[in-house]
């Protein structure tokens, strides 16, 4: 006798075939606008690098202008409309395309400021980007040796002075944070933060901060503002005295360096002086952050930061 064969169930076969099709690998997902922007930017930079010869300078500038306009168009499409009193109606590509003097690369976005006030201390400056571009920048941006601890998370990064130094080096070449200002994020925002800082950073820093940085993420857009505190910040005597103790140690080490001709001793004492100054600056900033919170100037800066966030959130 022949064995009986099981009867086929067409519905079952169709279900299995459909499941296999759904689970089968598909082509690459559609690129996001941010992915398209980054691909175009990198392609344009590569094309400009091929026109570095002196005889290609005219073609280089012409291509650079055309490519920059295209990138601005792409950014405007992603960012959308923006209007805020005190800023121009249109933003400019940040950073400039193919900036040979910015090897680390600024954060991609549109910068809003007036040309005649671009580097004036009282001027306010604004950068708008998308949360997608910010996340990509934090993930792939190379770290300098001194900024290895820059967070990869956007929420943590915007509270770090290293972020503003690296992401906005054309707007804020170097930043030292004096105090974090607590502000509430408006409804629908991922984060809102503010800090008092200075961009006057060198071997020494000023006794008081001269910039107010505000960062807000809302609706897929990230706003970063640099402004002058409306109420001037006063110095804190206790923090100045603390810094002075470290400066005396550094001065003593430097004087000892001048009294010896031994290269090894000079190197050791020089490094010791640098260490004291670095420690003093860190101690001073910690002191300022702690003691400033009870001052009227801090209250005024908090109100100013909150007003900036409110104005940005309405866009």
Describe the protein's architecture and organization:
The protein is of the alpha+beta class. It is built from 9 helices and 7 strands; from the N terminus they run H-H-H-E-E-E-H-H-H-E-E-E-E-H-H-H. The protein has 2 domains: 84-233 and 301-313, Protein Transport Mog1p, Chain A (3-Layer(aba) Sandwich); 237-294. The protein has helices spanning 10-23, 33-49, 57-79, 131-140, 154-157, 161-167, 237-258, 263-291, 296-313, and strands at 92-94, 109-112, 125-130, 176-181, 189-198, 211-218, 221-227. The chain has a 7-stranded antiparallel β-sheet. Helix 2 (33-49) runs antiparallel to helix 3 (57-79) and helix 7 (237-258) packs antiparallel against helix 8. The protein is globular, with a radius of gyration of 27 Å. The termini are far apart. Residues 1-11, 100-104 and 116-121 have low confidence and may be disordered.
């Amino acid at each position: 006798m022949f064995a009986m064969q099981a009867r086929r169930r067409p519905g079952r076969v169709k279900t299995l075939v459909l499941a296999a099709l759904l689970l089968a690998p598909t082509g690459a997902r559609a690129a996001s606008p941010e992915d398209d922007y980054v691909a175009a930017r990198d392609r344009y930079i590569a094309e400009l690098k091929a026109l570095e010869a002196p005889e290609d300078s005219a073609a280089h500038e012409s291509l650079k202008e055309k490519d920059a306009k295209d990138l601005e168009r792409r950014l405007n499409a992603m960012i959308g409309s923006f209007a805020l009193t005190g800023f121009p109606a249109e933003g400019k590509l940040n950073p400039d395309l193919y900036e040979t003097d910015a090897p680390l690369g600024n954060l991609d976005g549109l910068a809003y400021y007036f040309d005649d006030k671009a580097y004036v201390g009282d001027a306010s400056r604004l950068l708008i980007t998308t949360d997608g571009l910010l996340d990509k920048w934090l993930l792939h941006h190379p770290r300098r040796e001194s900024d290895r601890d820059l967070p990869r998370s956007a929420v943590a990064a915007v509270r770090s002075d290293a972020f503003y130094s690296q992401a906005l080096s054309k707007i804020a070449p170097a930043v030292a944070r004096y105090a974090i200002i607590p502000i509430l994020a408006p409804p629908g925002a991922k984060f809102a933060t503010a800090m008092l800082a200075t961009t006057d950073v060198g071997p020494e820093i000023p006794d008081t901060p001269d910039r107010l940085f505000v960062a807000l993420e809302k609706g897929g857009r990230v706003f970063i503002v640099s402004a002058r505190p409306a109420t001037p910040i006063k110095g804190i005597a206790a923090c100045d005295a603390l810094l002075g103790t470290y400066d005396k140690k550094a001065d003593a080490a430097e004087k000892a360096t001048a009294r010896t001709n031994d290269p090894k001793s000079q190197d050791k004492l020089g490094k010791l002086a640098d260490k004291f100054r670095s420690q003093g600056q860190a101690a001073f900033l910690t002191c300022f952050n702690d003691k400033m919170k009870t001052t009227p100037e801090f209250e005024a800066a908090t109100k100013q930061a909150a007003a900036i966030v409110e104005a940005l959130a309405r866009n």
